[in-house]
Amino acid sequence: MDTQVTLTTDGPVARVQLSGEKGVQLLGAGTRQRLHGVLEEIEQLPEINVVVFQAEGRTFIAGADINELRSLNAETGFENSQQGQALMNRVAALSATTIAAIHAACAGGGTELALACDMRVAAEDAVIGLPETRIGVLPGWGGTVRATRLLGSAVARRLILTGELVTAATALQLGLVDQVVSAEEFRDVVDARVNLVASRGPHARAAAKNLIAQFEGPDVEAQFQAESRAFAECYPTGEPELGMSAFLGKIDVNWASLRTP
């Protein structure tokens, strides 16, 4: 499945639209490259100070391309993690205020992108999570680090160790999103949030965003490196091949089979 990325601008507001086949958005290699291109465009437009990431259809972003992940090994897994982190870090580094408009299911890499944004608004029927442990890996595009830093270790453990997709209402309780609205009101509420943010001083917002990032604590680069190593080290265990094969085959995973002589 190929997901296209479209940039539209209106005054200080940029909207990044992801459009996949049958309304399923995936962050495959081509899509990640397209996102880099769009982010470069935004970085070169000083008038842009609000950026909205949005989609339509069955998902906001369903996550990475499982077939790509399945082809990795320890070496290429480390590279994949580093590349994914670079994309999410680029989103986080934008001086503009960023908003993830989560209208539907958001999982894996989609949640990692949402966590890299400043704000997350969800429709009430959306589900959100970091389900990578279901397929034998862990969130490797910054999700382990950001979930812990932004939500606390207890919430990060719940989301990552269970791999569950939580409802929007639960996500609000956990701090994973900051507002939940009905599907009928969703677009209007997102637009209202965009207009509210855009009405505030752009320099003051950029300065405050930079300060808040500093206040979150030191050594984030070391944490990203540790995440990449941990992601890569999943592959020699055989769990990714077993978990991803089961996922693609729509069958239950028998993790115990890896320990059978």
* Helix-strand string: EEHEEHHEEHEEHHEHEHHHH
Low-confidence stretches: none
User: What integer is the average pLDDT?
Assistant: 96
Largest sheet features: 6 strands, mixed
SS-derived structural category: alpha/beta
Strand content: 15-25%
Task: Explain what you see.
The protein is about 50% helix and about 20% strand. The chain has about 260 residues and is an alpha/beta fold. It has a domain at about 5-185: Alpha-Beta Complex (2-enoyl-CoA Hydratase, Chain A, domain 1). Strands 1-2-3-5-7-10 form a 6-stranded mixed beta sheet, with helices on both faces. The chain has a 4-stranded mixed beta sheet with strand order 4-6-8-9. The protein starts with a strand and ends in a 12-residue tail after the last helix. The mean pLDDT is about 95.
Topology summary:
Layout lengths: L2 E8 L2 E8 L8 H15 L6 E6 L3 E3 L4 H5 L3 H20 L3 E6 L2 E3 L1 H8 L2 E5 L3 E3 L13 H9 L1 H10 L2 E3 H7 L4 E3 L4 H13 L3 H14 L4 H14 L5 H11 L12
Parallel strand pairs: 2-3, 3-5, 4-6, 5-7, 6-8, 7-10
Antiparallel strand pairs: 1-2, 8-9
Helix pairs in contact: 1-3, 3-4, 3-10, 4-5, 5-6
Brief characterization of the structure:
The protein has about 260 residues and is of the alpha/beta class.
Question: Keywords for this structure?
Answer:
261 residues, 4-stranded mixed β-sheet, alpha/beta, 2-enoyl-CoA Hydratase, Chain A, domain 1, 18% strand
